Amino acid sequence: MTSHMPSRRMATRRILLATVATSALLGTATVPAFASPPVSAGHTIGHVDGGARLDYQKTVAVRVLKGAFEQGDTEVVDRFVRADYIQHNPLASDGPEALKNFAAGLHQQFPDTEYDVKRVISEKDLVLVHSNLVLTPGSRGSAVMDIFRFQDGKIAEHWDVLQDVPGSSVNGNDMFSTISRPQTGQPGPRSLTTSNKELVTKAFDRLLVDKDLSALDAYWSAGYHQHNPGIADGAAGAREGLGAYFGAFPELDVSRRRVVAEGDLVAVHSHYVNAPGERGQAVVDLFRVQGGKIVEHWDVLQDVPATSANDNTMF
Fold first, then answer.
1. CA distance 129 to 83
2. In what order do the strands lie in the sheet with 126-134?
3. Per-residue pLDDT averaged across 80-84, rounded?
4. Mean pLDDT, to the nearest integer, of 15-31?
5. Residues of the chain above pLDDT 90, percent
6. Taking residues 209-220, what's their average pLDDT?
7. 187 closest CA partner among 257, 66, 290, 56
8. SS3 annotation, the chain
9. Cα–Cα dist 293/281, whole Å
């Protein structure tokens, strides 16, 4: 569950231009251990299904960003990004050449950039990466959610959302850690993916799309852990925060665009418009499910800009 109260909207207004450009692909530095096949320049897995394909996609997504933006190795773009690459970051153009230009420029300006990956999930042809992007060592950096679509073993399309990490939070939790047990960023068994995706989709639609606060009783645990900096912990904190938000914006419209799930983690990419005529915000909410209840939540939100370097929108 995400709260987008007025104070949270204001918190997104200072997203650094360079930071937004950086996520023309995704963010990561410390890569979780994936049981994935070797990745080489000529390696494709179009014929491979199941877990090996999902792990391969995770590995490629992480490798491209780490190589391009941390190491300045733009050759990884040639190897693993399609020639017809579609970009939804509003400050980047379509195509791999634009991505390479971003990477080269960023690496030159911020040679110590770090991508600290917190969790990565993959379902079907989609990969979602949640990370802490730090351009300058010692700074808090930005929270980033990147979504990639794969086609024939290569990255074909990309969406992202970025938000500055604040100095404090109402709940005392940071925007990245795992509090619920087990305290790991790795997704749970893939056998749970379908049921957890169905549960979160129903819960999200009832609570955020239909603005029905009783969904908290049906789908959320009482001890739910909150990483949105502006909302208190627990289902009670969610009820108070969202109740105020719904009251402030009675014409709120939330459009769910895509859902990516793996094991106990489910991400929802959506468009929030507080009032008719506004451009709204791009939002990714990431939920953790255990025992049929939502137990933890992370989110990233970004104002939709008035102009874009591409014609694809953020969605």
1. 22
2. 81-87, 154-164, 142-151, 126-134, 114-123
3. 98
4. 34
5. 77
6. 98
7. 290
8. CCCCCHHHHHHCCCCCHHHHHHCCCCCCCCCCCCCCCCCCCCCCCCCCCCHHHHHHHHHHHHHHHHHHHHCCCCHHHHHHEEEEEEECCCCCCCCHHHHHHHHHHHHHHCCCCEEEEEEEEEECCEEEEEEEEECCCCCCCEEEEEEEEEECCEEEEEEEEEEECCCCCCCCCCCCCCCCCCCCCCCCCHHHHHHHHHHHHHHHHHHHHCCCCCHHHHHEEEEEEECCCCCCCHHHHHHHHHHHHHHHCCCCEEEEEEEEEECCEEEEEEEEECCCCCCCEEEEEEEEEECCEEEEEEEEEEECCCCCCCCCCCC
9. 27
Amino acid letter for position 203: A
In the structure encoding, which two tokens stand for residue 310, read together? 């591409």
- Give the pLDDT mean for 284-301: 98
pTM of the predicted model, to two decimals? 0.87
Q: How far apart are CA 77 and CA 176, in angstroms?
A: 28
- Of 154, 138, 151, the C-alpha closest to 61 is 154
Q: Say whether pLDDT at 47 is over 60.
A: no
Q: Which residues contact 45 (CB under 8 A, 6 or more apart)?
A: 37, 52, 53, 56, 153
Sign of CA dihedral 61, 62, 65, 71: negative
As a whole number of Å, the CA-based R_g of the chain is: 18
Residue 68, pLDDT score: 86
Question: 102 or 207: which carries more pLDDT confidence?
Answer: 207
Q: Let me know: does 113 contact 107? Beta carbons within 8 Å.
A: yes
Q: Nearest to residue 141, comparing CAs of 22, 282, 232, 268?
A: 22
CA distance 29 to 169: 24
- Which tokens is 70 given? 């941390």
Angle at the Cα of 16 from the Cα atoms of 25 and 155, rounded to 5 degrees: 5
